[in-house]
Structures are given as structure tokens and as C-alpha cells.
Amino acid sequence: MIKDVLVYLDGSKEDEVRLSYAEPIARRHDAFLTGLLCVEIPDVVSAGDGVFSVGQVAAELQQEAEEQGDKYEKELDMRFAKHEFSSDLRRVSATPSFMGQTIANEARLADLIVATRPYKHYSEKPEIFENVLFNSGRSCLFVPPAIPASDGPYKNIVLGWRNSKETARAVADAIPFMQRADQVTVAIVSDDEAPEERGIEPGADIARHLDRHGVNVEVRNINGWSDAAAALLNEVGRIDADMIVMGGYGHSRFREWVLGGATREILSKAEVPVLMAH
Where is the UspA domain (predicted)? Predict the structure, then answer.
């Protein structure tokens, strides 16, 4: 059940795109929408020559950022005042190094966070949204940059199935979307020969589970692909899907997250929303 949606906002033109996805979700699911306006305060590093007061420079830069934030907040307040559903605008300020954890803390109080996919576009912020994905404990709906949402609910969803806790979490959070879809395709990618030839039915168990939730589901085994991300994106294009559901994979290295190859590839190239959970 989706009753509390958080959408990342930063005052850029991508806010309009993110809201085009978040607002209909809140409306259709009778959910509360929280807009999270994130104001980045610049990190200040001392030059070490004693000429400038680092404290003074920091204060001036912070004031400039907050004044810009005031402008964005005023514009967004006007937008949110027009909502015919329950909504609120919140504002947080943090340096880039702390912004990811700040957003993750806020996301824990929502059912779903909407943000732009973090790779391969002009305003990409990978470190921030890797932190949100891996540390918030919530599913993220990563939407494509510069591509506003189409009209109507998601009708054709591709589930990149893998029997893992990450994918299971994504499925549980995506069921409200799947129940409203006309078709959900469980896509299982393998570089081996067709599993049916070995008497195996991969995907049958998850298909039964989804069917018990009233989801119209079809299993598709995609064989002979060594690149899982390319196979999933090809399937999305082949059936004209409008959402991908999948687990987000990665590992921690020196306190930073390193994404798995397929996760990064999908979040770099997908032109439809990706509901992802870790």
C-alpha cells in the first residue's frame, strides 16, 4: 500500500519532471505527497594562507545558497498550494557530502521516494542517490531525465526477477503498481540454453505469488544474453513497457557504495521509471 510519497526537489528544471511522476502516484493511490526541497550548502576548504577568513567565506556561501533556496521554496509553495490532494513541502540544507544521508533519513518516513536516475545526465548525483538507495531502507522510483510521465497509470511492467532479498523487497513495494497494470512480465535473464529443455520452470513460484495478489502475470525466460541489463532494456523496448521493477545491487568499499554492473547500466540508460530496492 502506498500512502506516503516523497519526491526529491532541488529547484532545477528536473523538478517538473519528477513532479509529473510523483503527483499522479499520490493522486491515484490517495497518498500524501511530501516535496523535499534539498538546498546544497557548498563545502569550504581553507587555502591555508591565512589571507581570508574561512568562517566568513563559509557564512557568505551558506547565505547565498539559502537565499537561492528561499526563491525555489516560494515557487514550489505556489505549485503545492494548487494540489487537490494532501501534500506538504519540506526543506533541508546540507553539504554535498552529507546530503545523501540527509535524504535517506527523510525517505525512511515514506513508502516511496521519487528521484531522477543518478547516471548519464547533466545533473547526475550518483553519490547522493546511491546513499539513498542503500541506506534508506525504502524503494526508490528512479525516473528518466527530461522525459515527463505519460498520462494514465503504469499498464505494462517488466520485473527483472532474481531470487534475492533485494528483488523480493522491490516486488513487495511494487505490488500496488502491478495490481493496476494490464500486464506484468517476469523477465528472467540467462546466458544458458532454454531452462525448459532441462525440465526447469524458473519464475513459476514468483508468478504464483503475484497471481495471488491479483496480478496479471506472464513469465518470459530470456536466454543467450551475457548482459542482463541489455536484455532487460531490450525486453522493455520489445513489449513497450512503462516501468521496470528490480533489485538494486552493490557492495560497500571504504564507506562508499559500488553498484553492480546491471544496476548501474539500468540506472544509466532506462527511459522508463525504475522501481528499485536494496
Answer: 154-277
